[in-house]
Design goal:
mainly beta, ten-stranded mixed sheet, seven-stranded mixed sheet, 13% helix
């Protein structure tokens, strides 16, 4: 069974090493970066079924990472809301979240608000997430958008280990700059890595890396063609393939696509701004949730 002990710094250093090749800039190394106060956060959540309901088994929170458990009506799932009390991320900040679901447990995880990644002096803001699902568990991983500001450097990794009959709905939205403020993005870094293992077998691996003049990069036709927001939605569940046509119907009027393979359903959405991205995400995620509304934090 997965050991939910505290991750070592190697987890973060490996993520940083993958996200940034320091050999490209000999004058900038992890040793020569200014030593400034940085945010650290760590959350471990473990849930299981007791008396027919999903209940919290263990909760650990440290540093700027906090957890709230609001009351939920009309759903069998337990809901948790992640908070970053640092008010955003900048270079050198590190947050790690670990979520463990016991057999038959049902859990929704979201965030209190959009995360913000501010200008960095050169180092990388790192967010690492480990999700573990036992037999027949159901997890909906529903963080709100991450907004990358000009000069931001951001590395995000999502690692999932799930049982064969477990179900996962995961979304990760990203917004490149504040469109309403007319913000443009110069040099920056966005690195996003997904790994999903089902019954011990790697079934999904996805890496996105954008580094350099971000506005120029995302304006390329083969990248985002000038769109400022995008999201990846992955559904891994026994009934995932049957939802392909309904998902395509929902996304028909948006710049998006959906495909099904290996018992999974993958959707990609690009949009001119965060509001347009949400207009596509909300009905799609509601469909995948069997008609249930998204957590209340999504509507505040």
């Amino acid at each position: 069974m997965y050991d939910a002990t505290s991750p070592s710094d190697d987890v973060f250093e490996n993520s940083i090493s993958r996200a940034y090749d320091f050999s490209r800039s000999p004058q900038l190394t992890q040793e020569t970066l200014p030593s400034l106060q940085r945010a650290r956060g760590q959350v471990r959540i473990s849930v299981g079924v007791k008396d027919g309901r999903t209940r919290l088994k263990d909760l650990y929170q440290d540093g700027c990472a906090k957890v709230r458990l609001p009351k939920v009506y009309g759903s069998e799932a337990l809901e948790t809301v992640l908070l970053n009390t640092a008010g955003g991320l900048t270079g050198g900040d590190r947050i790690n979240s670990t979520v463990d679901l016991g057999a038959n447990a049902m859990l929704d995880v979201t965030t209190q608000a959009c995360e913000r990644v501010y200008r960095s002096l050169g180092s990388v803001a790192t967010v690492t997430t480990q999700l573990r699902l036992c037999n027949s568990a159901t997890l909906h991983w529903l963080p709100q958008e991450t907004i990358l500001f000009d000069g931001g450097r951001f590395c995000r990794t999502l690692d999932v280990s799930m049982a064969e009959d477990a179900s996962l709905l995961a979304v990760e939205p990203i917004v490149f700059g504040r469109v309403a403020s007319g913000e443009t993005l110069g040099d920056g870094l966005f690195y996003d890595s997904w790994r999903v293992r089902r019954a011990g077998q790697l079934v999904f691996a996805d890496d996105t890396r954008l580094e350099g003049p971000l506005d120029d990069i995302i304006s390329r036709p083969a990248v985002l063609a000038g769109a400022k927001a995008t999201a990846t939605v992955l559904l891994v569940a026994p009934d995932a393939p049957s939802l392909l046509d309904p998902a395509r119907d929902v996304l028909a009027s948006y710049n998006a696509g959906a495909s099904s393979f290996n018992g999974m359903l993958l959707c990609r959405i690009v949009a001119p701004n965060s509001m347009a991205l949400r207009a596509a995400l909300v009905p799609l995620l509601t469909l995948f949730r069997g008609g249930l509304d998204l957590p209340r934090a999504w509507h505040l």
